[in-house]
Design brief:
Helix content is 55%, strand content 0%. With 249 residues, the protein is mostly helical. Helix 4 packs antiparallel against helix 7 (122-151). The protein is elongated, with a radius of gyration of 28 Å. 21% of the residues are buried.
Length: 249
Protein backbone atom coordinates (compact mmCIF):
# COMPACT_ATOMS: atom_id res chain seq x y z
CA UNK A 1 0.00 0.00 0.00
CA UNK A 2 2.81 2.41 0.83
CA UNK A 3 4.51 1.77 -2.51
CA UNK A 4 1.21 2.38 -4.31
CA UNK A 5 0.70 5.59 -2.35
CA UNK A 6 4.18 6.87 -3.18
CA UNK A 7 3.71 6.08 -6.88
CA UNK A 8 0.34 7.86 -6.93
CA UNK A 9 1.86 10.89 -5.23
CA UNK A 10 4.62 11.01 -7.86
CA UNK A 11 2.02 10.90 -10.64
CA UNK A 12 -0.70 13.17 -9.24
CA UNK A 13 0.89 15.12 -6.42
CA UNK A 14 -1.76 13.80 -4.01
CA UNK A 15 -1.38 11.05 -1.40
CA UNK A 16 -4.03 8.39 -2.00
CA UNK A 17 -4.41 5.25 0.10
CA UNK A 18 -5.46 2.38 -2.15
CA UNK A 19 -7.00 -0.31 0.06
CA UNK A 20 -7.58 -2.57 -2.97
CA UNK A 21 -3.85 -2.56 -3.73
CA UNK A 22 -3.15 -3.27 -0.06
CA UNK A 23 -5.48 -6.28 0.10
CA UNK A 24 -4.34 -7.72 -3.22
CA UNK A 25 -0.72 -7.15 -2.22
CA UNK A 26 -1.36 -9.19 0.96
CA UNK A 27 -3.01 -11.93 -1.11
CA UNK A 28 -0.03 -12.00 -3.47
CA UNK A 29 2.26 -12.38 -0.46
CA UNK A 30 0.21 -15.35 0.76
CA UNK A 31 0.37 -16.91 -2.70
CA UNK A 32 4.10 -16.26 -2.93
CA UNK A 33 5.00 -17.98 0.34
CA UNK A 34 2.84 -21.06 -0.33
CA UNK A 35 5.43 -22.96 -2.39
CA UNK A 36 8.32 -22.64 0.06
CA UNK A 37 6.50 -22.30 3.38
CA UNK A 38 8.12 -25.50 4.77
CA UNK A 39 11.69 -24.82 3.62
CA UNK A 40 12.39 -21.10 4.17
CA UNK A 41 13.26 -19.15 7.31
CA UNK A 42 10.83 -16.54 8.75
CA UNK A 43 13.02 -13.66 7.58
CA UNK A 44 13.03 -15.11 4.06
CA UNK A 45 9.24 -15.43 4.19
CA UNK A 46 9.07 -11.72 5.03
CA UNK A 47 11.29 -10.88 2.05
CA UNK A 48 9.26 -13.10 -0.28
CA UNK A 49 6.00 -11.46 0.85
CA UNK A 50 7.47 -7.97 0.54
CA UNK A 51 8.67 -8.59 -3.00
CA UNK A 52 5.30 -10.17 -3.82
CA UNK A 53 3.63 -6.82 -3.21
CA UNK A 54 5.93 -5.13 -5.71
CA UNK A 55 5.33 -7.92 -8.22
CA UNK A 56 1.58 -7.42 -7.85
CA UNK A 57 1.84 -3.69 -8.58
CA UNK A 58 4.07 -4.27 -11.62
CA UNK A 59 1.84 -7.03 -13.01
CA UNK A 60 -1.36 -5.02 -12.43
CA UNK A 61 0.17 -2.12 -14.36
CA UNK A 62 1.36 -4.48 -17.13
CA UNK A 63 -2.02 -6.03 -18.00
CA UNK A 64 -3.73 -2.65 -18.54
CA UNK A 65 -1.92 -1.67 -21.78
CA UNK A 66 -2.33 -5.28 -22.95
CA UNK A 67 -6.13 -4.83 -22.74
CA UNK A 68 -6.53 -7.91 -20.55
CA UNK A 69 -9.91 -7.89 -18.83
CA UNK A 70 -9.13 -8.93 -15.26
CA UNK A 71 -11.57 -7.17 -12.98
CA UNK A 72 -10.34 -8.81 -9.77
CA UNK A 73 -6.59 -8.84 -10.60
CA UNK A 74 -6.44 -12.65 -10.52
CA UNK A 75 -3.54 -12.69 -12.99
CA UNK A 76 -1.23 -10.41 -10.95
CA UNK A 77 -2.12 -12.16 -7.69
CA UNK A 78 -2.16 -15.82 -8.66
CA UNK A 79 -0.18 -16.18 -11.88
CA UNK A 80 2.64 -13.72 -11.20
CA UNK A 81 2.54 -14.24 -7.43
CA UNK A 82 2.55 -18.02 -7.83
CA UNK A 83 5.41 -17.95 -10.32
CA UNK A 84 7.46 -15.78 -7.96
CA UNK A 85 6.70 -18.15 -5.09
CA UNK A 86 8.03 -21.15 -7.01
CA UNK A 87 11.15 -19.27 -8.10
CA UNK A 88 11.79 -17.85 -4.63
CA UNK A 89 11.77 -21.39 -3.22
CA UNK A 90 14.84 -22.08 -5.35
CA UNK A 91 16.51 -19.00 -3.89
CA UNK A 92 15.72 -19.15 -0.16
CA UNK A 93 15.38 -22.89 0.67
CA UNK A 94 17.35 -23.65 3.82
CA UNK A 95 19.23 -26.98 4.25
CA UNK A 96 18.06 -27.49 7.84
CA UNK A 97 14.39 -26.95 7.04
CA UNK A 98 14.70 -29.00 3.87
CA UNK A 99 16.04 -31.89 5.94
CA UNK A 100 13.17 -31.57 8.44
CA UNK A 101 10.76 -31.70 5.50
CA UNK A 102 12.31 -35.08 4.60
CA UNK A 103 14.16 -34.06 1.43
CA UNK A 104 17.75 -34.42 0.27
CA UNK A 105 19.99 -31.45 1.10
CA UNK A 106 22.43 -31.84 -1.79
CA UNK A 107 20.74 -28.96 -3.62
CA UNK A 108 19.49 -26.00 -1.60
CA UNK A 109 18.54 -22.39 -2.22
CA UNK A 110 20.89 -20.45 -4.44
CA UNK A 111 21.66 -17.83 -1.79
CA UNK A 112 22.64 -20.59 0.66
CA UNK A 113 24.76 -22.24 -2.04
CA UNK A 114 26.80 -19.05 -2.12
CA UNK A 115 27.39 -19.55 1.60
CA UNK A 116 28.80 -22.99 0.77
CA UNK A 117 31.16 -21.37 -1.70
CA UNK A 118 29.27 -22.90 -4.60
CA UNK A 119 27.20 -21.49 -7.41
CA UNK A 120 25.08 -24.63 -7.71
CA UNK A 121 22.00 -23.58 -9.68
CA UNK A 122 20.26 -26.98 -9.63
CA UNK A 123 17.33 -26.14 -7.34
CA UNK A 124 16.59 -22.69 -8.88
CA UNK A 125 16.88 -24.27 -12.31
CA UNK A 126 14.36 -26.98 -11.43
CA UNK A 127 11.99 -24.35 -10.06
CA UNK A 128 12.27 -22.30 -13.27
CA UNK A 129 11.57 -25.42 -15.33
CA UNK A 130 8.48 -26.04 -13.19
CA UNK A 131 7.20 -22.52 -13.91
CA UNK A 132 7.78 -22.93 -17.64
CA UNK A 133 6.08 -26.34 -17.61
CA UNK A 134 2.96 -24.88 -15.94
CA UNK A 135 2.86 -22.01 -18.45
CA UNK A 136 3.35 -24.42 -21.37
CA UNK A 137 0.72 -26.89 -20.13
CA UNK A 138 -1.81 -24.12 -19.52
CA UNK A 139 -1.28 -22.49 -22.92
CA UNK A 140 -1.24 -25.84 -24.72
CA UNK A 141 -4.38 -27.23 -23.09
CA UNK A 142 -6.51 -24.25 -22.21
CA UNK A 143 -5.46 -22.04 -25.15
CA UNK A 144 -7.19 -24.15 -27.84
CA UNK A 145 -10.24 -24.47 -25.59
CA UNK A 146 -10.55 -20.67 -25.41
CA UNK A 147 -10.01 -20.36 -29.17
CA UNK A 148 -12.91 -22.75 -29.77
CA UNK A 149 -15.12 -20.74 -27.42
CA UNK A 150 -14.11 -17.55 -29.20
CA UNK A 151 -14.89 -19.05 -32.61
CA UNK A 152 -18.35 -20.13 -31.39
CA UNK A 153 -18.88 -16.71 -29.79
CA UNK A 154 -19.40 -18.33 -26.37
CA UNK A 155 -16.55 -16.50 -24.68
CA UNK A 156 -18.46 -13.26 -24.17
CA UNK A 157 -21.98 -12.37 -23.18
CA UNK A 158 -24.47 -10.44 -25.28
CA UNK A 159 -23.24 -6.84 -25.86
CA UNK A 160 -26.37 -5.38 -24.28
CA UNK A 161 -25.96 -7.57 -21.20
CA UNK A 162 -22.34 -6.43 -21.04
CA UNK A 163 -23.42 -2.77 -21.15
CA UNK A 164 -25.95 -3.24 -18.37
CA UNK A 165 -23.58 -5.41 -16.34
CA UNK A 166 -23.71 -9.03 -15.26
CA UNK A 167 -24.86 -8.19 -11.74
CA UNK A 168 -28.03 -6.55 -13.04
CA UNK A 169 -28.59 -8.66 -16.16
CA UNK A 170 -27.96 -12.04 -14.53
CA UNK A 171 -28.21 -11.57 -10.77
CA UNK A 172 -31.23 -9.29 -10.33
CA UNK A 173 -29.48 -6.21 -8.98
CA UNK A 174 -26.28 -4.14 -8.68
CA UNK A 175 -23.48 -5.37 -6.45
CA UNK A 176 -21.60 -2.06 -6.30
CA UNK A 177 -22.69 1.51 -5.84
CA UNK A 178 -21.25 2.73 -9.15
CA UNK A 179 -23.44 0.26 -11.06
CA UNK A 180 -26.33 2.62 -10.42
CA UNK A 181 -24.90 4.70 -13.27
CA UNK A 182 -26.26 2.22 -15.81
CA UNK A 183 -28.82 3.98 -17.96
CA UNK A 184 -32.46 3.06 -17.61
CA UNK A 185 -32.76 2.89 -21.40
CA UNK A 186 -30.16 0.11 -21.54
CA UNK A 187 -32.01 -1.91 -18.89
CA UNK A 188 -35.33 -1.42 -20.68
CA UNK A 189 -33.77 -2.47 -23.98
CA UNK A 190 -32.35 -5.60 -22.36
CA UNK A 191 -35.73 -6.55 -20.90
CA UNK A 192 -37.38 -5.91 -24.27
CA UNK A 193 -34.86 -8.09 -26.10
CA UNK A 194 -35.44 -10.94 -23.67
CA UNK A 195 -39.20 -10.65 -24.09
CA UNK A 196 -38.78 -10.78 -27.86
CA UNK A 197 -36.60 -13.85 -27.43
CA UNK A 198 -39.39 -15.54 -25.50
CA UNK A 199 -41.87 -14.63 -28.22
CA UNK A 200 -39.63 -16.05 -30.96
CA UNK A 201 -41.21 -19.35 -32.03
CA UNK A 202 -38.62 -20.21 -34.66
CA UNK A 203 -36.17 -21.50 -32.06
CA UNK A 204 -33.23 -20.03 -33.96
CA UNK A 205 -32.28 -17.62 -31.20
CA UNK A 206 -33.12 -19.65 -28.13
CA UNK A 207 -30.87 -21.40 -25.66
CA UNK A 208 -27.13 -21.23 -25.10
CA UNK A 209 -26.46 -22.18 -28.74
CA UNK A 210 -27.74 -18.82 -29.96
CA UNK A 211 -25.01 -16.26 -30.57
CA UNK A 212 -27.16 -13.27 -29.70
CA UNK A 213 -30.68 -12.29 -28.81
CA UNK A 214 -33.22 -12.48 -31.62
CA UNK A 215 -35.25 -9.32 -31.90
CA UNK A 216 -37.92 -10.74 -34.21
CA UNK A 217 -41.09 -9.10 -32.94
CA UNK A 218 -41.85 -5.62 -31.66
CA UNK A 219 -42.40 -5.22 -27.96
CA UNK A 220 -45.76 -3.99 -26.73
CA UNK A 221 -45.18 -0.38 -25.82
CA UNK A 222 -47.81 -0.42 -23.11
CA UNK A 223 -46.18 -3.33 -21.30
CA UNK A 224 -43.73 -2.33 -18.63
CA UNK A 225 -40.25 -3.86 -18.98
CA UNK A 226 -38.94 -5.85 -16.05
CA UNK A 227 -36.15 -4.17 -14.12
CA UNK A 228 -34.87 -4.05 -10.55
CA UNK A 229 -37.07 -1.92 -8.30
CA UNK A 230 -34.18 0.25 -7.13
CA UNK A 231 -33.40 1.20 -10.74
CA UNK A 232 -36.94 2.03 -11.84
CA UNK A 233 -37.31 5.65 -12.94
CA UNK A 234 -39.20 7.78 -10.46
CA UNK A 235 -41.91 9.99 -11.96
CA UNK A 236 -43.20 13.11 -10.29
CA UNK A 237 -46.87 14.02 -10.70
CA UNK A 238 -47.92 17.64 -10.82
CA UNK A 239 -50.30 18.55 -7.99
CA UNK A 240 -53.95 18.75 -8.97
CA UNK A 241 -55.33 22.30 -9.28
CA UNK A 242 -58.66 23.42 -7.96
CA UNK A 243 -58.91 26.44 -10.24
CA UNK A 244 -61.87 26.36 -12.63
CA UNK A 245 -61.11 25.77 -16.29
CA UNK A 246 -62.49 28.26 -18.78
CA UNK A 247 -64.45 26.17 -21.32
CA UNK A 248 -64.37 28.99 -23.85
CA UNK A 249 -60.54 29.15 -23.89
Amino acid sequence: MFTSTILDERKTGVFQWDTTAAMNGCLTGLVGITAGCATVEPWAAFVIGFVSGWIYLAAAALILPLNIDDAVDAIPVHMFGGAWGVISTGLFTNAHRLKIAGSCTDNIGWFYEWGRGSGNFTLPGIQLLAVMFVFGWTCGIFGPFCLVLKHLNWLRIDPLEEEVGMDISRHKGPAYENEGAVTTDAILELSASRRNLALDTSGSGRGFMGKRFKRTQPVEQNKKADMPAELEPKTEHAPATSEPVDSMA
